[in-house]
Amino acid sequence: MRLSRTLIFALTLATSPLHAQDVGADGPYLVGWRDVDFNDPHYNRGQVYGRIYYPATTEGQGAVADPSQGPFPLVGFMHGWIEPASDYDDVCSHLASWGFVVMSNDTETGALFVKMQRQAKDTRALMQWVEDESQETASWLSGMTNNLAWSAFGHSMGGGALSFLVQDEPRVESVVMFEPYKGTLVGNSQNGFASFDNYSGSALVIAGDQDLTNNWSAIVRPWYEQASSANRKVWALIQGGDHFGSTDPDVHLLWGFGSLSYEFQHLAHRRLLTSFLLAEIKGQENSFREIETTEHISFEASAKDTPFWSLVDPTNSGAVLLGSFSMPSSRLRIAGSSSTGSLSTIYGELGLDLSALSILHDAKLDASGWKSLSLPLDPAWSGRTIWFQALASRGPSGSFSLVNSIVVP
Q1: β-bridge mates for residue 298, sequence order
Q2: In a domain, 19, yes or no
Q3: Rounded distance, CA 194 to CA 241, Å?
Q4: What is the pLDDT of residues 169-190, one digit of tens each?
Q5: Which of 397, 222, 395, 168 is nearest to 303 (CA)?
């Protein structure tokens, strides 16, 4: 859930997560995991199975959950065809290390008679079970989640199943699709695909240009185009990527045939997934920059709700990096100011002081919908806070971003 537009992010050089760690590396939390099964009391799903990854006091199976810095956002994951939850331990553990509780579905794992629709319903039941257990003081999950915004990601069959999950569950505000399936098998995606144009949350769709299972242009790309009502959406195509770049290494060794190494494929999935959910669910919009710095991808984006990032260049303390994305051909303006203000407009609230405001960028976005720029910082400003805001508009339609800031080194 986005924070109020009147809230100002004071992201300084010392506190910005982009200066502390690369999101492709493990995050600051140790991760434990447990397999769970239960009889669903809410949605009549019967016995449901899953694997949960969570911030913990130590690493490994059965580790004690650590709610001291929680509650944490809950994320659901749905596996690909015939792949159990254990085939995705690495990517799920990675996301949990950045302060998420990840619930990995472990139903619909057979080769025959499996359906995306059932997988989505079981995932909803599993996520609700985690929320319920987090409210129980005697549970090992006590205090770990607290009905924060939900998000979900899925691979192949599980990626297509996300369209059914968002049909059933409005709490899912962001989805990440790894090489999603579209077609008549595993329950038929037709209904989910048709309704996906009503989904108003955010979506990241990832494809591999050497995927022999779900062709990137015929099967995967249509999901991005269908998300026409999404408040934000990002498309990422991994150059040399195959269908199994998000799986654990033993699985990729059997089935992955892309020209890009497994290490780079998995790294791209980790970076894209983590940066997107840090930005969308935790409000850390500087994390969007990790998308454009991910190697071996091409990308584009569109947004109705204007994002914005600003940070001191990690490789050059004498420059500030600014960026945003919106609908292609939108007019993007970025301004800076030495102080904040408040002015209501047709685009929302301008949060900069008009008397001290300078326009730093004013141009139409290209077909990628994405813009980033680097501007020099005057050494005389050392120690001062500079405030920034973006506006993306198409005539009378558009929106201001949140206000962001840096402290000049």
Answers
A1: 237
A2: no
A3: 27
A4: 999 999 999 999 999 999 999 9
A5: 397
pLDDT digits (tens, 9 = 90+) for 48-98: 999 999 999 999 999 999 999 999 999 999 999 999 999 999 999 999 999
The position carrying tokens 């792949």 is: 83
**What is the CATH number for 72?**
3.40.50.1820
Distance CA 252, CA 365 (A): 38
Q: What's the distance, CA 205 to chain centroid?
A: 10
- Write the pLDDT tens digit of every residue in 307-357: 999 999 999 999 999 999 999 999 999 999 999 999 999 999 999 999 999
Residue 381 sits in which domain range? Answer: 308-408
**Beta partners for 324?**
371
Q: Token pair of 29, please? A: 């939390």
β-partners of residue 404 are 388
C-alpha span between 96 and 50 (Å, rounded): 15
Q: Residue 35: which of 136, 142, 107 has the closest Cα?
A: 107
Q: Give the sheet arrangement for strand 47-56, strand by strand.
A: 60-61, 30-39, 47-56, 101-105, 74-78, 150-155, 172-178, 202-208, 232-238, 297-303
> pTM (2 decimals)?
0.93
| Strand 202-208 to 232-238 pairing | parallel
Q: Residue 293 carries which DSSP code?
A: T
DSSP 218: I
Extract the tokens encoding 95: 């996301």
* Total structural domains within the chain: 2
| Nearest CA-CA partner of 171 in 199, 194, 197 | 199
Is 108 part of a structural domain of the chain?
Answer: yes
Task: Classify 310 as helix, strand or coil.
Answer: strand
Q: Note whether 133 and 255 are same-domain residues.
A: yes
Rounded Cα gap, residues 339 and 319, in angstroms: 19
- Say how many C-beta atoms besides its own lie within 10 A of residue 344's C-beta: 8
